[in-house]
Every structure is written in C-alpha cells, then in structure tokens.
TrEMBL record:
InterPro entries: WD40/YVTN_repeat-like_dom_sf (IPR015943), Xyloglucanase_GH74 (IPR052025). It comes from Streptomyces bingchenggensis (strain BCW-1). GO terms for biological process: xyloglucan metabolic process. Gene3D superfamilies: YVTN repeat-like/Quinoprotein amine dehydrogenase. CDD domains: Sialidase_non-viral. This is Glycosyl hydrolase.
Length: 361
C-alpha cells in the first residue's frame, strides 16, 4: 500500500496525516489560529511540494510552501499573491491552489477572494495577476455566494496546458483556450434557480468541479441545486442528479483512475442545510451519473449533522485509491476501497475546510 500524505485544512490550522501500519498518524496544528482554505500537493516535482493558503486575522492571508512534507515551512518576504495597484482591492483569502498538469510542470494557479485568478510559473513561489479575467466585462455583475465572491475552483486540461476552467461564486464557469489571455462563460445547461432567468449566460452559483480520470472532456459539477456532467469540456452541462436524496451540496470528487466514477456528499437545501435525513452518507456513481449508490459502511449510524464543504471531499492518486472527506463537526473519514467502507481518521478538530491527499513514495 502506498505511503499517503493527508492534508487537512481547518478553521484553526493545518493537520498532516501519514498512513502507516494500517492507521494514521497526525501532526499539527501547523499555522495555529489561521484558517486554511486551500492546500495544493504538487507531486510533479522530484520531492513533493506542499502549498498552503492560510489567513491570519492579525497578519492577513499568505501562501506558505514546504519541500519536506511539512517539517519546515517557507513564507516569502513579500506576499506571493497580491493585487496590483490600480485594482482598488486587496487579497482577502486564497481559496484554491491548483498545480497544473504535466504539460506545464512549474505552473500553479491560485484562485482568490475577491474573485480573481493568479498564475505561477515557478512552482508557487511567486504569482502573476491574470488581468484578463479580472477585466472581463461581466465581472462587475458577478454576485457573491454565502461564503463570499471567490474563484474557488481551477481545472486544467491534461492534454493542453492552455485550456483552463475557473469557477466563480456567484459568476459561474469561465473557460480559456489561450492560457488565460481571454475568457468566455461556459454555463449552458446550468440552472440558477434563484434568478428570474433560471438559465442565464452567467451568474450561476457553482460549488465545485471535478475532472473525469479517463475522459478529459468529461467533467462533474456540484451546483447550488443540481449535479451535472459535461461531455464536451464544459461547453454544455447535463443534469445527473436523479437518484440522489438531494441535489444540493458543496463537494464533488472523481476517482483518480476509473472513468465514469465520481462522488458527492448531498446536503438538504433550504433552512437547515444538513445531510438528508441527518444521515452521514457519500454517494458514488460508476456510470457517469446514470445511477447513484449510497456508501455508508463504517460511517455514523445515529443522527448526524456534519456538512462537507466544497474542498473537503477528495481522492488520492494511490493504488488502491483512497477517498477522504472532512466535515464541520471536525471529523475526517477515509476509505481505502473506493468508498465501499470508511474509517475515522480524526475527530474533534476545528471546522474542516479542505482535504487533500497524495501518494508521496
């Protein structure tokens, strides 16, 4: 079984887990009293690099990096991510740190609040402002979700490093085919049930996007109401939520090697926003959304109120593959068999904001 690093970002620090001897050993908190909304594990390098977006109520937000799996950390003397003069704004939070594919081995994207995108060409040490998205004529009309307006998801095409998707809350999906020089909304078929026109060109409250492991044109999307699939790299979207106990939720993840396999954690829409029936359950599709099955072996059977946020459901790249989720109860669960069974990794942590895992060799 592969050696796996598990990174757990919480409201009050980062916890790191290593799998060994059938169990998990956790260290932390790293960055205590800082909210960790984003973690990137860059396995394209000879030694994996950890990137952490943490924000302190006193010192503000920053991006930290480690090249020794969290034993030591480096913070640049000048902020790695910052808005340039003339934008009349400042960085509130780094929501996403996304190492691009092997076609661009040193490129890392950062999605931020306010809703903007930054690009690094040195593995996340420094970032350049992607002005084209910020200056898109539709940006002034983007709304703000309950968590604020942010670029919270970045997806890159493994075949072509110039194809990038960015999801904005609440602006929808934007696609670039020229490395970020220009952007176009890519929301055909996505519903915005809270707007007078439920199928606008932009303005959808997209919660998360995950790429399929085998088909680069296939993407899975959890919307503010609706689970969707695209078979044309995000140009159009098809609702695949039938068979789920609720089509609202925040997170979606895909299996790292099996095509057509994706995971969601449904949440009831409306006033309560708890798991449907107060039951802790992950749902998996093995046929690209044609059907869904409940995965609950090893999860709590009693009434359960833990909600999984948009970046707190993830798979690793180990063999066999692992699936992980953390919730706002401070619990983290792991599966080593594609989600068929689960075990508790940690409990009584602060709110879990994000989870990342990777084989580190």
């Amino acid at each position: 079984m592969d050696d796996v690093l598990l990174a757990i970002g919480t409201r009050k620090g980062l916890f790191l887990g290593r799998r060994g001897g059938g169990g998990w050993d956790l260290t932390g908190p790293h960055f205590p009293m800082q909210a960790v909304y984003s973690v990137g594990i860059d396995t394209r390098r000879a030694a994996p690099r950890l990137l952490v977006g943490a924000d302190s109520s006193h010192w503000g937000p920053s991006v930290f990096r480690s090249d020794d799996l969290g034993r030591t950390w480096h913070e640049p003397p000048a902020p790695a991510v910052r808005f340039p003069e003339g934008t009349d704004t400042s960085l509130e939070r780094v929501w996403q740190l996304h190492p691009a594919g092997p076609a661009a081995p040193d490129v890392v994207y950062a999605g931020t609040q306010p809703g903007a995108l930054f690009r690094s060409e040195d593995g996340g040490e420094t970032f350049a402002f992607v002005r084209s998205l910020w200056e898109h004529p539709q940006r002034p009309e983007w709304g703000a979700g309950f968590g604020g307006q942010a670029v919270h998801t970045v997806v890159t095409d493994p075949r072509d490093a110039d194809v990038v998707l960015a999801a904005v809350s609440s602006g929808g999906v934007y696609r670039s085919a020229d490395g970020g020089a220009s952007w176009a909304p890519s929301n055909t078929g996505l519903k915005a049930e809270f707007l007078p026109d439920p199928y606008p060109e932009f303005g959808q409250c997209v919660h998360k996007i995950a790429p399929d492991a085998v088909d680069p044109d296939r993407l899975y999307l959890q919307n503010h109401g609706g689970v969707y699939r695209s078979d044309d790299a995000g140009a159009t979207w098809l609702d695949i939520g039938k068979g789920l106990p609720a089509d609202f939720g925040f997170a979606v993840a895909a299996h790292p090697r099996r095509g057509g396999v994706a995971y969601v954690f449904p949440v009831s829409d409306g006033s309560d926003r708890y798991p449907p029936g107060y039951r802790c359950r992950v749902f998996r599709t093995e046929d690209a959304g044609a059907s869904w099955s409940e995965l609950s072996a090893g999860l709590p059977k009693a009434d359960h109120y833990g909600v999984v946020l948009r970046d707190a459901l993830r798979t690793d790249d180990a063999d066999p593959a692992g699936v992980y989720f953390g919730n706002r109860n401070g619990e983290v669960y792991a599966s080593a068999d594609d989600g068929d069974s689960w075990r508790l990794v940690a409990e009584h942590l602060p709110d879990v904001l994000c989870v990342r895992a990777a084989a580190v060799g």
